[in-house]
């Protein structure tokens, strides 16, 4: 039977998926998709909440999605007794390099460009900001990180290690910098690294989705709908 080029490619891809499945049986589903349920068992997880501050939240583009995600996560974390760390990176200072003159001005310009992407606050947004302030603002109840990448702060790493997690789950702000850097470093350090996409946000939709796409190539990016299938959902 004669096969077209595309049929041969599809057949080869299917054979490759079956090979991967046979090699990692119990870790992969039959269709070659990674089964992550075992890495999200509550006793194996540590959740790191980054920068839960009203002044950051009010400049995020996906306020409604974030509130809905946290309305699921917050009681579920208590119910399942999942360990959490609330971390503030907003006061972290970068090292000054001898040959990096003008770096502070350079960073200020880059930051200003990002701030131009901040959405206009609507009346509905004001309701979400009020909800966040009342329910989820962790200001004053956080560990201060000396690095924007929390996995480079030795004090925080010691706290993480004392919990002996296999999986570190990231939520908070901002998706395109602190979440991106910390989650990838966690993966490099040997942890399963998971980002809950709707429980993070940043200035703009473009920054948000491009960051998630980059992270998804190296670690697990899921949303609360995926978690509901694993942790359950109470009506």
Automatic annotation (TrEMBL):
Isochorismatase-like domain: residues covered: 144-225
Pfam families, A to Z: Isochorismatase
InterPro entries according to UniProt: Isochorismatase-like_dom, Isochorismatase-like_sf
Origin superkingdom: Bacteria
SUPFAM superfamilies (UniProt xref): Isochorismatase-like hydrolases
Protein name: Isochorismatase family protein
Source organism per UniProt: candidate division WOR-3 bacterium
Native organism taxonomy: Bacteria, Bacteria division WOR-3
């Amino acid at each position: 039977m004669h096969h077209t080029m595309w049929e041969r490619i599809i057949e080869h891809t299917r054979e490759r998926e079956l090979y991967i499945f046979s090699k990692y049986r119990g870790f992969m589903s039959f269709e070659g998709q990674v089964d992550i349920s075992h890495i999200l068992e509550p006793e194996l997880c540590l959740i790191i909440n980054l920068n839960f501050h009203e002044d950051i939240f009010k400049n995020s583009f996906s306020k409604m999605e974030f509130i809905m995600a946290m309305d699921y996560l917050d009681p579920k974390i208590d119910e399942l007794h999942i360990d959490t760390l609330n971390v503030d990176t907003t006061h972290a200072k970068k090292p000054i390099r001898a040959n990096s003159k003008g770096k502070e001005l350079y960073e200020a310009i880059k930051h200003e460009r990002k701030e131009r992407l901040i959405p206009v606050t609507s009346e509905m947004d004001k309701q979400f900001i009020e909800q966040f302030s009342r329910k989820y603002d962790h200001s004053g109840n956080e560990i201060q990180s000396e690095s924007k990448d929390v996995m480079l702060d030795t004090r925080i790493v010691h706290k993480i290690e004392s919990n002996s997690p296999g999986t570190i789950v990231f939520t908070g702000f901002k998706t395109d910098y602190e979440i991106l850097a910390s989650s990838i470093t966690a993966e490099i350090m040997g942890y399963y690294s998971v980002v809950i996409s709707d429980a993070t946000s940043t200035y703009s939709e473009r920054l948000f989705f491009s960051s998630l796409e980059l992270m998804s190539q190296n670690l697990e990016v899921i949303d609360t709908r995926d978690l509901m299938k694993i942790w359950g959902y109470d009506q």
